[in-house]
Amino acid sequence: MARRAVDGPGVPFFLRVDLRNRVPTIALFELAVGEYRPLSAAAAGSAFVMTRPFAFSVDPADLLDEDAPEEPADIDG
Questions:
Q1: Are 44 and 18 in contact (CB under 8 A)?
Q2: How far apart are CA 13 and CA 3, in angstroms?
Q3: Which domain holds residue 34?
Q4: Which superkingdom, per the lineage (predicted)?
Q5: Residue 32 belongs to a domain
Q6: Would you say residue 70 lies in a domain?
Q7: What are the distances in angstroms from CA 56 to CA 26, 43, 49, 73, 75?
Q8: How far apart are CA 13 and CA 30, in angstroms?
Q9: Dihedral angle at the C-alpha atoms of 32, 24, 18, 2, nearest 10 degrees?
Q10: Count of CB atoms within 10 A of residue 27's CB?
Q11: What single string gives the DSSP state of each residue in 27-53?
Q12: Rounded to two decimals, what is the model's pTM?
């Protein structure tokens, strides 16, 4: 689904992170000819990879607290 840019100067990139469902998703859009067009997208369990406007990759599942490993106890004090 392409979103139309607002009037005036547009934001060149739009990153949507959706954590509302049990399957988180990430989508990157780029402004082109007045509309945001998809560049990259991924759901939990797969890698979201982008190279513009900077390099970044993550599995959307890593954004949830549920399965985060517990921090080790500080035994030094």
A1: no
A2: 11
A3: 13-63
A4: Bacteria
A5: yes
A6: no
A7: 12, 15, 6, 30, 34
A8: 5
A9: 30
A10: 20
A11: EEEEEETTEEEEEEEEETTS-EEE-SS
A12: 0.71
Q: What residue has token string 């934001």?
A: 11
The total of other beta-carbon atoms located within 10 Å of residue 71's CB is 6
CA-to-CA distance for 30 and 12, rounded, in angstroms?
A: 6
pLDDT, tens digit, 9 for 90 and up, residues 24-77:
999 999 999 888 999 999 999 999 999 999 999 999 999 887 644 555 556 665
Whether 21 contacts 1, CB under 8 Å: no
45 lies in some domain = yes
State how far the Cα of 49 lies from the Cα of 56, in Å rounded to an integer: 6
Map tokens 């900077």 to a residue: 54
Give me the number of domains the chain comprises: 1
